[in-house]
Please model this.
Amino acid sequence: MHALAFIQDMAVIMLVAGVVTILFHRLKQPVVLGYILAGFIIGPHTPPFGLIHDEESIKTLAEVGVIFLMFSLGLEFSLRKLFRVGATAFIAAFLEISLMLWLGYQVGQMFGWSHMDSLFLGAILAISSTTIIVKALNELKMKHERFAQQIFGVLIVEDILGIGIIALLSGLAVSGSVEPGAVASTLGKLSLFMIVALVVGILLVPRLLAYVATFESNEMLLITVLGLCFGFCLLVAKLEYSVVLGAFLIGAIMAESRQLLQIEKLVEPLRDMFSAIFFVAIGLLLDPKVLVEYAWPITVISVVVVLGKILACSLGTLIAGNDGRTSLRVGMGLAQIGEFSFIIATLGITLGVTSHFLYPVAVAVSAVTTLLTPYLIKAADPLALWIGRWLPQPMQRVLGIYGEWLRSIQPQGEKAVLAGMMRRILLQVGINLSLVIAIFLGGAYFAGGLAGWLSTWIADPDLQKACIWGGALLLSLPCLIAAYRKLKALAMLMAELSVRQNQAGRYTQPVRRLVSEFIPLLSLAGILVLLAALSSSILPRGELLLLIGLVAVVVIAVLWRWFIRVHSRLQIAFIETLEQDKGGHH
Amino acid sequence: MHALAFIQDMAVIMLVAGVVTILFHRLKQPVVLGYILAGFIIGPHTPPFGLIHDEESIKTLAEVGVIFLMFSLGLEFSLRKLFRVGATAFIAAFLEISLMLWLGYQVGQMFGWSHMDSLFLGAILAISSTTIIVKALNELKMKHERFAQQIFGVLIVEDILGIGIIALLSGLAVSGSVEPGAVASTLGKLSLFMIVALVVGILLVPRLLAYVATFESNEMLLITVLGLCFGFCLLVAKLEYSVVLGAFLIGAIMAESRQLLQIEKLVEPLRDMFSAIFFVAIGLLLDPKVLVEYAWPITVISVVVVLGKILACSLGTLIAGNDGRTSLRVGMGLAQIGEFSFIIATLGITLGVTSHFLYPVAVAVSAVTTLLTPYLIKAADPLALWIGRWLPQPMQRVLGIYGEWLRSIQPQGEKAVLAGMMRRILLQVGINLSLVIAIFLGGAYFAGGLAGWLSTWIADPDLQKACIWGGALLLSLPCLIAAYRKLKALAMLMAELSVRQNQAGRYTQPVRRLVSEFIPLLSLAGILVLLAALSSSILPRGELLLLIGLVAVVVIAVLWRWFIRVHSRLQIAFIETLEQDKGGHH
Model:
């Protein structure tokens, strides 16, 4: 790209975007739509002529805009928030995404679009727009109401699921078909990668940022943040995931840093500049001819988005035990599509699997539903009143009984405490096992390179394998021991609960001990078999395996306490990072 | 540029820059040198291999970095500051730049370098580095001492002169020779452009920014600022000046905005990110072979820079009436080259007029002198003491007498007030005449287009010319009248002072009236002749000119008061903008 042409493009983009967004702000419409309109005006499809010289460079900067956009979303996301999100968010988000994926696919098929176009349409319709909702609630001054909090919960779950959808679609587009096994494998690897990245990242990154922050230089902190952000995106891209995932994950990791507020302030102008380019670039791609040609699908899909999302989200919120008014307000707040849809539509173009019309259609549907959002939010209350008046009496009674029943089955008092403990233990076991699995998968992945490196000392390939496998086992021992101890605690808890004195009589103690010893050992055996299967390519022969096992037993016996100390230190560091104060973030 | 390659480049740049700058910060060395070293490490000239894929894109972003760098310098510059800067700054800056231009040229010739290389070397050595000095003084905690204030004054004058040097070099590189007439014409046009841009910009831009700021959206303010910045750079580039000038000017204009602090905070991360790319890109160009080959010139030039700048700046400060210690501290603080030198060296490459070795030599000299800066500042006090002890008595007495003489010739009391008034009047006349000249030059420049547009109504080309010239005259009448009135006030003041009662006796009043009427009329006639010469291409024939003159006289007679009111309103708006509080800026 030539410098002057680039400056000219930037000048045109920023000037037109500035004027149009001021206009849109005065008309009380979302600024994002202003950007898209600005892109449309200066784009190659609108008269008098294309004002952009170097479209390729603008597209690259738009990609950087996506990175900053997702990085900011990640900064606003936080694991603590995800843990605190109630059942409402999970149920509503799952229901919404499943229904919209199915509806989108069906609508695509109805219009006779290809298999892949229909699939992408479903994905495009699945996720609501955080940007639009936050701005709309801000402008309506409803950000602190209860339904708004429920909406933010749904959006957090949606972000995670949206990341999953993007990873799945990238995989599907390459393989070309939807096989349940492949989907499960993709999702499994994705979850594994996310857990490992989050655990390792939260252990390292906030400490690094705290160190850099001691220099009290905004410049150095920014450069470090940018280095980590782009570096992690690159790593994720090399692992053949989308950079969107990378930007979101590194944002979520930095959200656990004590410097969060400072980082947000430093990144905000960069995000605003590059995301403006991203949204303008979306407008550049809009061809009015396509919009006219596809006016009918755009109308149908817009109606499907609004009705489908209101139905799914309201129902999900209602099922989770909220009152009708709140449920309707949540549903009507979430009834639009936005930045995730653009990213998914762009993905389709980049992978070359979707037709040319899908992108403009997605943008048009987003524009229509975005414009409707404030009116829908404002209409929710009158509509709830109206429904309440016209809903038949029996129906209302059923809802009331359902709510009471739901409250009655929720664990209370001692039971709630126990349920909380069990959830916590299972989470810890899950994280530790994920780390173990990642170590073994990593060992298998890098086996070729490691073997080559080992070959200077060890000639026998079987011995090399044994070394790699043994090394992986040694490295994962702290996590394995921790998982075993947590499982034992869980088993004791379960033994206490399930084997009652009045049933087992004088055998109570022995039976309880049996249960509490047997369950963790059985689980551990299961885990080892699973590991052996996952690392089959580097699993050594029988006698060597036996030898490794013996060595491991000796190591465990000698270093038991040390392993526990190392692990508990890491765990404390991790939890401290999660629970430290980030300076009153909203 | 491909998105992933670009992300990879960004990741490499930011990660290496982050690590190296942290290292440099720990070693208490300037971060800027860290960036350059980072670029050198990842560059194509250093083993093991070039880590940058898309050098072209990085260069473009480096150019954007220059824009943000100069824009930030402009934001920190301010006309108020320039007006307040004392004689010290002007004398030291002029002396330094003249001496360094001459010394640089001579050194280049001594090494047998080409005419153009020597000229660029002079320019590269002329301007000291604001970035380096501010950081060094910050770290030494000397920012608020008297000599530091003197240094900042010199830097402000240097910025303006540096901009002039860049404009001159661009012109020279194209024409290939240094003709006094061409230089004067270039500098004249440049000054005219700067004055007009500043006056018009300060009347419009702060008002626009205040309007956008009422929306209380950082995003919209940033987009507007970026639009104005890139837009103005584009305009300046179309007028065939350097974008460096444009970025600096629009920054200086925005420095008069009430939103200055907010704008600085929004632009800071963008500047830090892009200027990091700029400095890394400088390192990318460094070829160690050239550095070794040119080790001797680098040494000589570094010594010349340090000694030359210390001598020129200390002498200038001393001449302006400061004590020896302060003078030496000012001189030793300014003894390095930095960002302006890189920009000028880049200009040489872009224009294709300098040899390949000049750029690495400039960077190496900058690195050496930058590394010396903190030590020089710290050494200034001991050196001043040492010189004081060893300076011969007569020499010290001469200095003392000079200082007293300087104080004795400075206007005091009533005279100082009068001198201030006269300076103010001359400044106002100068600005108004600049605007008038710009209007006529603009008329001549756009005459072709305007004539074409007029031809639908007026066929005769002579009549068209008359219309354009008349229009320019009408447009410039408020400024002409204001200039005339200011000149009259000046003439009255001078008559009062020069025609004394005891000399002219009873003719005092008539002679005074003669002087106070005669001088402004003579000046006005001179101005009109100058305007006629400048706009000779659109000057109509004799009788038409007479007609226009008659119309002008009638218009002036009828609208005299209205013209004065319009002009004074604009003037009040301008001065209010200059003098409003920008929220406690440093």
